[in-house]
Amino acid sequence: MEVKKLFTGEEIPVLGLGTWRIGGGMAADYSKDKIMVEIIQQAIRLGYTHIDTAEMYGGGHTEKLLGRALQHFNRQDLFLTTKVWHSNLHYQGVLNAVEGSLKRLHTDYVDMVLIHWPSTSFPLDESLQALNELVDLGKVRYLGVSNFDLELLEQAQKYSSTQLATNQVHYNLYYRKIVRDGVLDFCQKNKILLTAYTPLERGTIINNPQVKQIATSHSATPAQVALAWLIRQPNVITIPMSANITHLQQNLGALGLELNSDDLQQLDGLEMPEEALWPE
Asked: Which CATH number is associated with domain 3-202+230-243?
């Protein structure tokens, strides 16, 4: 697996496993538990050792499925990221949320905890105070944020006693607001990884004629092209979600895909108007 470096020098895979809708959306779905546990385990065997989840996914059920799946692997070989939901960002809420995640994941620590969405109800410094304490206690190794604009990202860095490891944001060939707003540039200049979610824009990118043409010219899949465009950028990693093992295996082909200057010129011009995109 190709890797990039966190600010400490520790390596993290450029392709992680996203888990949104594994085990449910906003509420738990128990109907495919056995299948989903097996898919997670197969994905890890393929090389997906960075796994991204959140306390909100499946109302906590996604973390429980991960906890079941991960018992068959060496914990030190895995990099687990979870996220605290915006309604839990008061001091005690953060502490309780992370304790809940640890229990569901059956682990003593998580590698990274993110603030899932900015809160308008609780002060950011209060949220970071609790997260800083969890780092000091050894229950969390790295801190990060998600869906933060440039102003909030700078504030979060000020309140964090350790450098932020990542800002997880919506970013792909079609959606590049974080480029226009300076978020990507800030991350690249400050050794903060930018973790791109929804890298295939819910599958719409793979049907783009130009992406398909470039894929054909490289004997690749359109998904591989879209992922390669992301991970070729400094400080950018991504977390495609799929419950299809064939797709997960194919996505790994993005790691060795070399896009030429003509490819990049075409791809760089693909950004779509925001009103044409799927809602957040």
From this structure: 3.20.20.100
